[in-house]
User: Fold this.
Amino acid sequence: MAKLYFRYAAMNAGKSTALLQAAYNYEERGMTVALFTAAHDERSGRGVIGSRLGLTRAAATFGPETRFERAALPAQLACLLIDEAQFLTSEQVVQLHRMAHVEGLPVLCYGLRGDFRGEAFPGSAKLLTIADELEEMKTICACGRKASMNMRIDAEGRRVLHGEQVLIGGNDRYRAVCPSCYYAGDGVDIHQAPGLFG
Ligand SMILES: [Zn+2]
Assistant:
């Protein structure tokens, strides 16, 4: 029985690498897959899924208007793979869930669970609610504990507490940290306390 899967993590846990590996595993067995990524994620170029290990691959893009049920998908599709799934809308997650259970198409979504404020992304909230299988992909904080939070750091090296959920451009950076380091970062200039954040 096909399922909707959500594999979630903090930043830099290797989500895109895992997605590309999953695609390869299907294709090695002669099966066809379709890849999507968020239209506004252009870190690796528009419509490109890029892994930090250097692998890149072209993908279709989705925006809030995309209807996956009507997307031009290849015949005999074995699996739908979606990167940056936190940017799906709630309705799109329902479309994907329906495709898994009505059309029998497995859908694998990879994305962030929460933003730098500790708030859910809309797509992640819905995926965490209705996906059939949840899998946390683990990554490690600089202190050695499990990283589960995303910290936004501004150009001066301070943790950012408020602001837009998604910044396009700008000089802010992100770091995956454990909760202890996340809260220890309140108002701390990381250039002044480098030991705290490695
Ligand atoms: Zn830590």
Remarks:
- Residues 4-137 form a domain with the Rossmann fold fold (CATH 3.40.50.300).
- The pocket of zinc ion is lined by residues 141, 143, 145, 177-178, 180-181 (CB under 6 Å).
